[in-house]
Design a protein that fits this description.
The protein is of the alpha/beta class. It is built from 7 helices and 9 strands. Helix 1 crosses helix 4 and helix 3 crosses helix 5. The N and C termini lie far apart (37 Å). 43% of the residues are buried. Bound molecules: S-adenosyl-L-homocysteine.
């Protein structure tokens, strides 16, 4: 699988450069590239799709849900400006791939999935792969994870109509939330919401994206 993975990394870097004027990111930091290299993506897709695991595209994972496109996983990870001591909340565990990539870069991940079957399978898979710094919970991610807050970064991996207030509340000063926002199924803007040291919130829309919807639970 390693040549396929290197090819995926080259395609991701090209797309990062093509979108740099919108995202402000010209290159992935080495820690993110290394994370993408280390996480065995073929373990996160259905067995019959293993041959396509390193194609730079989203793939179906069952229950009408998808594993995000590798470029999207990379740029979302990059956009929260991840640091090794960070605690990060993810909404929409899905198969657990984004959580695994984050877990290679930051200290601790809290991830919430609304579909029990997917969340339980992801938790099992992540444990098998040895990720002991990822906590998965079944529930409605719109409420966040108050007991573990505040978070240095929050990633929402499903398309929302609005930014849930609980998530902004649970963001630490200096923290960044990245969330696809938009009304239609096939169109959202990837929004970056930064909370400054004084607690003031600044938002910018960076990129057109297409995510499955964030449900109301
Ligand atoms: N992070 C995944 C992509 C997941 S797709 C990856 O690494 O590829 C989006 C996921 O969000 C789906 O599994 C869906 O069931 C979940 N989801 C949708 N609405 C949700 C909600 N309100 N709370 C928690 N999870 C939700």
């Amino acid at each position: 699988m390693s040549e396929a993975c290197e090819q995926m990394l080259r395609e991701i870097e090209q797309e990062v450069q093509l979108t740099a004027n919108r995202t402000g990111c010209h290159r992935l930091r080495p820690a993110v590239v290394e994370a993408l290299r280390r996480v065995p993506r073929e373990r996160f897709v259905p067995p019959e799709l293993a041959a396509q695991a390193y194609v730079n595209r989203p793939l179906p994972i069952g229950r009408n849900q998808t594993i995000s496109q590798p470029y999207i996983v990379a740029i979302m990870t990059e956009l929260i400006d991840p640091g090794p001591d960070d605690r990060v909340l993810e909404i929409g565990t899905g198969c657990g791939y984004q959580a695994a990539v984050l877990a290679e870069v930051v200290d601790t991940i809290y991830s919430i999935e609304s579909i029990p079957e997917l969340g339980e399978a992801a938790a099992e898979r992540l444990a098998e792969l040895g990720y002991d710094n990822i906590h998965v919970r079944i529930g409605n991610g719109r409420a966040g994870w108050p007991d573990a807050a505040p978070f240095d970064g929050i990633l929402v991996t499903a398309g929302a109509e609005d930014v849930p207030a609980a998530l902004i509340e649970q963001l630490a000063p200096g923290g960044t939330l990245v969330i696809p926002v938009g009304a239609g199924r096939w169109g959202q803007q990837l929004r970056r919401v930064h909370k400054d040291a004084a607690g003031a919130v600044h938002s910018e829309d960076l990129l057109a994206v297409a995510f499955v919807p964030l449900t109301h639970g």
